[in-house]
Amino acid sequence: MWHYLFPALIMLQPCDALHIASNIVPRDGTMRSTRCMATADLCYDEGTGASTGVFTYVTDSSFDELVIKQSSTNPVLLALGATWCGPCKVIEPHLRRLNSQGDVVVVKTMLSDKSKPLREIIKYLDDHGHKISALPLCVLFYDGEPIDALLGRFSAKQLACFLEKQPVLGTLVRKWKSQQPPAPDSLATAEPLAEIAESGFERIEHLDPRIQARIRAAAEASTCSRKFG
């Protein structure tokens, strides 16, 4: 059943995997709500780690086995996201392709208000210098330790560059990078805007107002911020 909120808001569809208790607040202070983005491969049971589609989902009870121990023999990329996070959905195709190659294991965890089994993971990352301040957050583990992290939305090219700079991965990244499909023109145009936005808004004030608006929109859309833990 669809529920109507206020005339100014769009319709929301209830989902047990998600609490839309606090909407994302943009810099201009306005409120906006989004439809529940939870799909079959994002909604999951809180357990010891269940495989859903191409990903294995990790909770506190399975973190040591699926991430720490597994990374002693294979690089493991822990992708942290949430059902309400749009950028998390954007990066999913890149994670799927990386995981299907088999050389880097991609495991996921979805943070929500019901994520009590994830508190130890959050604490572990915080203690090791990877505090979750925004989503998506992808943390690379190798030899039982987190060695680097990638924050925010990224393209296939940006993921390849992130992995390529890791000495421990060697030729694995070059193999994966060679398998990437060419980016559509629209994505190729949007990515430089996001990169400009990340460098600071003070550099764009001289640009056409319409260009400024596109850059600011790209920055807003690159991450989702929320209080965790």
UniProtKB/TrEMBL annotation:
Lineage: superkingdom: Eukaryota
Q: Which Pfam families match?
A: Thioredoxin
Q: Which SUPFAM superfamilies match?
A: Thioredoxin-like (SSF52833)
Provide the alphabetized UniProt keywords.
Signal
What's any one GO cellular component for it? cytoplasm
Q: Which GO terms describe its molecular function?
A: protein-disulfide reductase activity
* Gene3D superfamilies assigned to the protein according to its UniProt record, in alphabetical order: Glutaredoxin
Regions that span the bilayer: none
- Respond yes or no to whether keyword Signal is given for this record: yes
InterPro entries in alphabetical order: Thioredoxin-like_sf, Thioredoxin_domain
Record's signal peptide? 1-17
Domain named Thioredoxin: residues: 56-164
Instruction: Kindly indicate whether the keyword Signal belongs to this entry.
Output: yes
**PANTHER family cross-referenced by the UniProt entry:** GEO12009P1
**Name recorded for this polypeptide:** Thioredoxin domain-containing protein
Organism in which the protein naturally occurs: Haptolina brevifila
Lineage per the UniProt record: Eukaryota, Haptista, Haptophyta, Prymnesiophyceae, Prymnesiales
